[in-house]
Amino acid sequence: xxxxxxxxxxxxxxxxxxxxxxxxxxxxxxxxxxxxxxxxxxxxxxxxxxxxxxxxxxxxxxxxxxxxxxxxxxxxxxxxxxxxxxxxxxxxxxxxxxxxxxxxxxxxxxxxxxxxxxxxxxxxxxxxxxxxxxxxxxxxxxxxxxxxxxxxxxxxxxxxxxxxxxxxxxxxxxxxxxxxxxxxxxxxxxxxxxxxxxxxxxxxxxxxxxxxxxxxxxxxxxxxxxxxxxxxxxxxxxxxxxxxxxxxxxxxxxxxxxxxxxxxxxxxxxxxxxxxxxxxxxxxxxxxxxxxxxxxxxxxxxxxxxxxxxxxxxxxxxxxxxxxxxxxxxxxxxxxxxxxxxxxxxxxxxxxxxxxxxxxxxxxxxxxxxxxxxxxxxxxxxxxxxxxxxxxxxxxxxxxxxxxxxxxxxxxxxxxxxxxxxxxxxxxxxxxxxxxxxxxxxxxxxxxxxxx
Length: 452
Prior knowledge:
Layout: E1 4-7, H1 11-22, E2 27-31, E3 54-57, H2 64-74, H3 78-85, E4 87-88, E5 93-96, H4 98-111, E6 115-119, E7 133-135, H5 143-153, E8 158-164, E9 167-169, E10 179-180, E11 196-201, H6 203-215, H7 237-242, E12 269-275, E13 282-285, H8 294-301, E14 312-314, E15 317-323, H9 326-329, E16 335-336, E17 339-344, H10 354-373, H11 385-393, H12 427-448
Parallel strand pairs: 1-2, 1-7, 2-6, 7-17
Antiparallel strand pairs: 3-5, 4-5, 8-15, 9-13, 9-14, 10-11, 11-12, 12-13, 16-17
Helix pairs in contact: 1-10, 2-10, 3-4
């Protein structure tokens, strides 16, 4: 049987290769690192996490991404299995030890007999002899491949900037000023309800911090970058601060659900730090992506109460991400309309987030394997998290006259509930009802789908 080729060894490509092999189809996974490096990656491991170490909420009843976690576990996801095995405390979120997680994914794929891992860049379009290809090169697609895709489709790829949060050494945080607590003391996978380090601001401290942030020097955009918009879900802190003095206080620095043990009251604003590795020696600043110059980051971030003497393992950074106009270019099986032998998966399709990228790879892998085996497979119901995400990428939820933008999975993408003769549930009851419907409908899809 001819192999399916997967280009890109990130979250989406790794998951796609795993799903193909589990369906009994040989697969070649191509990863250009370490022979060709990117601006964001630091290792040659598969599924390396380059931004946050969090897979976000693991609550399958009240959060759409938590529901997506649950659905992927039922689909034998290698990404979720590795995440579960290498989780670190993070309140209600599923966060992982970066190195352990990547090593586990790499080891699982290397041990799978039907998976061949080849190192080296695929320059331009994959060879015509490859009749089934999944392009999962992510938001850091090499220039040669991006140009080839653009030439084939006649469409300009859309692009946005993604920023990386700084990481500090745990031992350098002043715990006489900071304290451990999760919002509302909520425990999560591997956590206790006191999983985040919190650094509290009084009002005058916050105002001084915002003033310094606005005055700080940033890395200049290159000419070709100047018209590239940011993704709204991952804005640098200095961009948020420009939108108003209280923007950060109602965003990543919101103090809700937290009590400063020194005062017994809620702070004016808070910076939270989340454990970044299994040893608990590194913590990242949650939501603190930035494009400030490194010297300016040191000056401004040391103004955070409790971080006055902090040592940074990594400062924040920024890189240019690229995604396709997927509703126009891709069909409902993630195939490129202009060249159906090519499928796309992951962030290059316009899904946003680690879990969504891996989920897109999961679907692309299952679609490609079924096609190779000559068996029929339906798309997952739009009432599931997998189906709702796929529908967004392929245009099912795009309103007329609106442009396609990256999107995290959320309950707003799900079809409304039908309650004949009764008022539909609201709030948490609505979310739980949507999740319960998704669980039932996913079960039906898995029973009808070919074994994988």
